[in-house]
Amino acid sequence: MSVLSRHRLPQPYRGLLIASWLLPLALLWLALLLGRGPTPSLFDPRLLLLLGLMTLPAVYIWQEGVDVRPDGLFIRQHVPRFRPFHELDTYYVDSRPNRRLLTVWDQQQRKALETHLAHLTDVPELLRHLHTHLRWRGWPGS
């Protein structure tokens, strides 16, 4: 399926988050290498499993965001899921300085997406797609 636009945490921040998450793992492995020398214990499955599990959040941070497709939104937040436009109802952008949130509700008035605008690239493009397919809600509760 084609993707019209992708909206993620901007690259410099996403890259720095991933690097800061993986740096302790690299330092641990380097300390083991320097402390004991190149031994087979560096490739022990228990150590590699632990390092692999600790890298999962970094991979998750790299993927989080929203993809706009012709027939809906693919939301990569917590659990990746596709939400067709016909299941979505309204959206609202809370642009107060202390909030800056985008919220999208489905037909049952449940939140389908809630994210900070700073976590997305090209917000005007995303809002243009939402305006084309969904109703603007106005102030929540109205």
Task: Please characterize this protein's 3D structure.
The mean pLDDT is 87. This protein has a 4-stranded antiparallel beta sheet, covered by helices on one side. Strand 2 and strand 3 form a beta hairpin. The chain has a single domain, classed as Roll (PH-domain like). Helix content is 39%, strand content 27%. The protein is an alpha+beta fold and 142 residues long. The two termini are 36 Å apart. Helix 1 runs antiparallel to helix 2. The protein is built from 3 helices and 8 strands.
Name the overall outline. elongated
Number of strands: 8
The residue ranges in which pLDDT falls below 50 over 5 or more consecutive positions are: none
CATH architecture: Roll
On the 0 to 100 scale, the average pLDDT is 87
- What is the N-to-C succession of helices and strands? EHHEEEEEEHE
- Indicate the CATH class: Mainly Beta
Q: Over all CA atoms, what is the radius of gyration?
A: 20 Å
The biggest beta sheet is recorded as: 4 strands, antiparallel
Structural class computed from helices and strand pairing: alpha+beta
CATH-defined topology = PH-domain like
* Strand arrangement, major sheet: 1-2-3-4
Query: How many distinct helices?
Result: 3
Give the total of domains.
1
**Helical residues, percent:** 25-40%
Report the portion of residues in β strands: 25-35%
Task: Give the N-terminus to C-terminus distance in angstroms.
Answer: 36 Å
